[in-house]
Amino acid sequence: MSETSPFYLQGFLAPVADEVDYYDLPVTGALPYELNGCYARNGPNPLPGDDPGNWFLGAGMVHGVRLRAGKAEWYRNRWVRTNSFVEDAPYIRADYSIDLTAVPANTNVVACHGKAFALVEAGVPYEMTFGLDTVGPFDFGGRLKTAMTAHPKHDPVTEEMHFFGYGFRPPYLTYYRLSPEGELVESREIEVIGPTMMHDFAISSGHVVWMDLPVVFDVMTLSRTGMPYRWDDAYGARLGVMPMTEDAKVTWHDIDPCYIFHTANAYEDDSGRVVLNAIRYRPDAFKSVWTEIEGQYDPAASAAILGRAHLHRFVIDPANGVSEEQLDDLDIEFPTWNIDRTGDDNRYLYAVSVDGIVKYDHRNDSTEFYKVGRDQLPGEAVFVPSRHSRGEDEGWLISLVSGAEDTPSELLVLDARDLTFVASVQLPCRVPEGLHGSWLPYDEEQEAA
Ligand SMILES: [Fe+2]
C-alpha cells in the first residue's frame, strides 16, 4: 500500500481480500464452557482494488468466531451481500428516490428476536444467518419506512426495543418502538431544525434522549468526501428529552458544540433529572477524526482512527438546563455496559483506548485497565453476562483484537470483574480494525438450523 493511499486502506484498517473459514482454532487459557454462540463484528472492508472514497462507505464485512463448550469451533468472515454489493445498485435512483437497500451494511451486527441484523444508519437492516450468510433486507413487515440506526436500544424492563431512522430528506428523524414480540408498533416523526448526522441516541427508564449536533447535511461535500455531512460552527448543539408516553413532545436544551458518536447509557436520578453519559469529541477532535474517515492522514493524531474523545456526563435538568462534566481524560471510544442495565444507573462502563480496554466504576470513581500488545488494537469489548450472574459485572468482555498489517488477530476474553485474562482464540489471519460487534447467543432452534 503506497503512502498516498487513503488512510482507511492502510495499517490496522487495511481491508482483507478474501472470505475464509478456519476450524478448531487454537486457544490460550480456558474458554468459559457456558459461552455458546458467536461473537460477530462488523466493519468496512472494500473489495480488492476498490476505493469507496470514505472509510464509512466501504462494503460491510462481518467477522465471526463460534464458541461452544470451551472450544472455538470456527472463524469466518463474510461480506454483507446488500444490493449495492451484489448489483452495484445506486443509493439515489435515476428518479431521485432513495434505495434504502443499496447501502454498505457495515456498522453493527445485533441479535433481534432470533434474527441477526447487519446495520448501517443509511439503510434498512440486512438479516444475516448466525453462520454469517446474508438473508436479505428486512423492513418489519413494511412498517419501517426510513433507514434504521446501527444503535437500537433494548429496554430490559419492558422488553421493548427503541430505535430511530434519520436522513437528509423529510422526515429527517423518525422514532420507532418494537413490542416485546418484535412487532413494530410505533412510528413517530420527531421535529428537528434540519438534517444532521445522528449516529446514536439513549434511553432512560422513561425518556428518549436525542442529540442534535453540528454535523450537518451539505450536498456540496458529497463529491469531495463521499459523505454529505460536515461540521458547522453556526449550527449550535442541543440535547432533546422526550417522555416515552404517546405523543409526548421533545424538550431541547442547548449544550456546548461537540460531537458524540456514542452514548454510554442514560438514567433518571432521584431529582427527576436525566443523566446522559457519552463519549464526547471537542470540535477540533471531531474535525481531525472526520478528516481521516474521509481518507486523509492527520499527522497530529494518534494511530487509531477513533479514540480521541472523552467520557463526559450531561445532567439534563428540566428547570435549569444542562450541566456538563468531563469524567476522565483517557481517549476512548466504543462504550459498552451490561445491557440489563440500559436505562438505569449502571455502575460499570467499559470502553477501549488505542492500547487497551478500560473499565470504569462510576460508584467508586475508579478505573481498571487491560493493556494489549504493542502491535495490537483492541476492538469494542462486548459484555456477556455469566449464566447465573447476580452482580452487574459478573461475566466476560469479548474483544476482537486486530493485529497490524500482516499480523494475525485474536479473540480476547477477559473476566469483566477485574479485567484479568481468561482466554484468547488465535486467528490464523488478520482482522482489520472495524466498528461494532455483538455476542449472538445460540438457542437450540438456531443450533438445529
Ligand atoms: Fe457506532
Description:
Belongs to the carotenoid oxygenase family. Keywords: Dioxygenase, Iron, Metal-binding, Oxidoreductase. With 449 residues, this protein is mostly beta strands. The protein has one domain: 6 Propeller (Neuraminidase). Helix content is 6%, strand content 40%. It has helices spanning 83-87, 222-225, 283-293, 444-448, and strands spanning 21-23, 27-29, 37-44, 60-68, 71-79, 108-112, 115-119, 126-128, 134-137, 153-154, 161-166, 173-178, 184-189, 202-203, 207-212, 215-217, 229-231, 238-243, 251-254, 259-268, 274-281, 310-317, 321-326, 333-336, 348-353, 356-361, 366-371, 376-377, 382-385, 395-403, 410-415, 420-426, 437-441. A hairpin with a 5-residue loop joins strand 20 (259-268) and strand 21. The structure holds fe (ii) ion.
Query: How is the main sheet built?
Result: 6 strands, antiparallel
Average per-residue pLDDT, rounded, comes to: 94
- Taken together, the total number of domains comes to 1
Give me the CATH superfamily.
TolB, C-terminal domain
Give the count of helical stretches.
4
Q: If you consult CATH, what is the topology?
A: Neuraminidase
Approximate strand percentage: 35-45%
Q: Care to count the β-strands? A: 33
CATH class: Mainly Beta
Shape: globular
Distance between the termini: 41 Å
Instruction: Quickly give the CATH architecture.
Output: 6 Propeller
Assign the structural class, choosing from mainly alpha, mainly beta, alpha/beta, alpha+beta, or little secondary structure.
mainly beta
Helix share, percent: under 10%
Task: Catalogue the unreliable spans.
Answer: none
Tell me which oligomeric state these chains represent.
single chain
- Using only C-alpha atoms, the radius of gyration works out to 21 Å
**Associated small molecules:** fe (ii) ion
